[in-house]
Amino acid sequence: MEKKETKYTQEFKEQMVAMYKAGKPATELVKEYGMSKSTLHKWIGDYNRTGSFHAKDNLSVEENELIALRKENKQEQLLLCKGRKKIRRSAGKCDHSHFSKRP
Prior knowledge:
- The protein is mainly α.
- It has four helices and no strands.
- Helix 1 packs across helix 3 (37-50).
- The chain is elongated and about 75 Å long.
- The N and C termini lie far apart (81 Å).
- 4% of the residues are buried.
């Protein structure tokens, strides 16, 4: 059985975190509003760490560094590919005039 992914609004997530911080037990919130307990705890953790629910705002220093290195690597690969294409094109444009033609 395939599980449908539910999208929650920023406002809804903030309300759930606020109710939890106000003392409402996680088990009650989960039963009443239908999200999983792990989802609620992720929202609480994200909000406590950064005040944001966006994944990019909640990455570790190492994860951000890895993303930057991958982006840099991709740019280098594109430059290398462009350089190879340029070399291939210029190799095809060789001046063959220095070869003597047979009479």
